[in-house]
Here is the input.
Amino acid sequence: MRIDVYTIFPRIFQSPLEEGLLGKAIRRGLVEVRIHDIRDYAPGKHRQVDDAPFGGGPGMVMKPEPVFEAVTRTLGYRLEELERLKREVSVIMLTPRGERLTQAKVAELASRSHLALICGRYEGIDERVLQHLCTEALSIGDYVLSGGEFAALVIIEAVTRLLPGVVGNLESLREESFSGGLLEYPQYTRPAEYLGWKVPEVLLSGNHGEVEKWRRRMALEWTRRMRPELLNEGDKGEGG
Ligand code: 6GU
Here is the structure.
């Protein structure tokens, strides 16, 4: 898979793409991530990427030209070939106005070969980018970020985990269990007692049947307490 990211804050992406499972996947060539500075495609001496909103109001709006230029030029298309670009690449706007990200959507994205993630700023990005350059818009939840950069990292991280060869079979089974609609059961490791707090007896018993029953019960209990809407069948985690 290839992922191109368009941002006015490229340095945000430096260490997150080097660390952990994601860094390893990139080094192994399982995913190729390229970060592009939108400002490099802004014209003029001042490299202006934003301007006041038409109609007035607070904040600044990202200008369309540098975004169209950045995406088409880095991906090797002309501005006259936007329809072909959109057939060949999923061009995704990160904005709180977008469709909310779920594990099902992450899995769908992981099946595509080429993503382009456009990090808008919260105040806004000229709507023509969404209308004519993007294939879809995504939000990572109902809260406000100043820009789409951290949302893009969330998507890269979640999608990369699902690519073949990135995580082992055991991990993928665990993910399926989340997609299947229950939260994870609690985990413990040594020491069996810490500051007087004991690990549940059943986990030390060696009785695998009882351990499985306990985990299932805890997953159900925790889900009922934290995310009761996940227990309603047919409401596959999209609720809220
Ligand atoms: Cl994708 N962008 C911004 N600016 N805020 C968000 C978001 C995205 N998703 C949730 N909040």
About this structure: Residues 94-96, 122, 139-141, 143-145, 147-148, 151 surround 6-chloroguanine (CB under 6 Å). The two ends are 31 Å apart (CA to CA). Residues 203 and 212 are 9 Å apart (CA to CA). The longest strand covers residues 90-100.
